[in-house]
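Lecture notes, continued. The same structure-token format from the folding unit now serves as the input rather than the output. Read the line below as a description of shape only.
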């Protein structure tokens, strides 16, 4: 892929981690690798590229069975400048305020609730979490594996249900229980 296709600066490419099965950014000449896109990235082009080539919306939930005491959920994360790590695969430095993040995630919630788009589809291009490459799918987790606010909301949901906006130290989430 050329840099025009990915939106990455010259010499950078998207690769997939063998251990985490997540995309990361690599510069072959310098051997630099990082989870966040490098400075100078055209984020709109990168979002389109990631949605086309690094989305796994086609993962069938039938391929998974819930381990005892665990649930499976997907989420869409919107970070703000006061998040514990205000950077993501989409933006190397997140500067939006909490209020701006809240408006954005509520707009996403409205789009999902109207049936225009699924949480998985939106998470693929809009989530500030690296799980975006999997449509926001976080896999299975047990109590104690996630931040308390996230976990409390996720475990209260029935299969297929989506939460209201959930605030954690990471940012603002919409959570959908898958299993």
């Amino acid at each position: 892929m050329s840099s025009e296709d990915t939106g990455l600066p010259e010499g950078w490419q998207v690769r997939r981690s063998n251990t985490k099965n997540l995309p990361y950014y690599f510069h072959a000449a310098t051997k630099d690798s990082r989870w966040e896109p490098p400075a100078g990235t055209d984020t709109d082009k990168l979002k389109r590229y990631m949605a086309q080539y690094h989305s796994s919306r086609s993962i069938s939930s039938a391929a998974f069975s819930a381990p005892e005491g665990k649930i499976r959920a997907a989420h869409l994360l919107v970070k703000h400048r006061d998040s514990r790590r205000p950077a993501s695969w989409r933006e190397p430095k997140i500067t939006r305020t909490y209020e701006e993040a809240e408006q954005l995630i509520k707009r996403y919630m409205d789009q999902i609730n109207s049936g225009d788009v699924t949480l998985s589809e939106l998470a693929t291009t809009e989530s500030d979490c690296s799980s975006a490459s999997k449509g926001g799918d976080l896999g299975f987790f047990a109590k104690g594996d996630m931040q308390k606010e996230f976990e409390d909301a996720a475990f209260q949901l029935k299969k297929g249900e989506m939460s209201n906006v959930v605030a954690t130290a990471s940012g603002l989430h919409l959570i959908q229980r898958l299993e």
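Point for the exam: Residues 57-64 have pLDDT under 50 and may be disordered.
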